[in-house]
Amino acid sequence: MRGRVRWRRFLAMLVPSLLALGVLATGMAQGALPASFAVSGRQMKVSADRLTGRGLGLFPGVVRSVDGRRHVVLNLSLRTAQVYGLCQSALVDTPLGRFTVRLSARDRGRPSRISQLAIAATSLSADVDFSSVVINQDAGLLSLGDALEGRRGDFGLGAPAFTVRDVTVDTWMVTGGTFRVDDLQVAVGRGVRPCF
Predict the structure, then answer these.
(1) What's the count of helices (H) and strands (E) in the chain, helices before strands?
(2) Is this structure's pTM higher than 0.90?
(3) How far is Cα 110 from Cα 165, in angstroms, rounded to an integer?
(4) Cα 77 from chain centroid?
(5) How many whole angstroms separate alpha carbon 153 and alpha carbon 60?
(6) CB-neighbour burial class of residue 89 (10 A; exposed 0-12, middle 13-18, buried 19+)
(7) For residue range 99-139, what is the model confidence (pLDDT) as tens digits?
(8) Please, which of 1, 14, 74, 124 could form a disulfide with 10 given CB 3.0 to 4.6 Å?
């Protein structure tokens, strides 16, 4: 199954993708996300040239921001993956004004390695190639290891193996069990470009 997919606000279309580095800016969560986890009031941008891995699942969910608002998302969970050309950026407010913070892998040809990755996405674009995809699987029965899992009875999509190219994701949150990025580059400033 191969295709170009675009969607806004979780109902438009389903497509897995991945990755992110924002987790490096705030620390990494271990294992599944607690229900009381609160995200900041600002979304991040995540992009990658290519991602390959095993154990993909996606399913609907809701995250709560610190202001108490609830946001509908599509959760993307990956058991393991190698990510090429990783980039994460976000706008942050400071006493000196609004700045862009950008984290990226300097060598786009060297993969970053992740496990138990979960992304709460609001939009994404990607070219995808699934292995043995199952659509409308019960979200609570997806085999994702220790990654964030869906609720029983909810819609789910699962694939044992995947390749995703030209990924761009708007996301509220990224968590990872392990996240290794060689030669991490960090930039902050008004003139710093976002990932996309």
Answers:
(1) 1, 11
(2) no
(3) 15
(4) 8
(5) 11
(6) buried
(7) 999 999 999 999 999 998 889 999 989 999 988 888 888 88
(8) 74
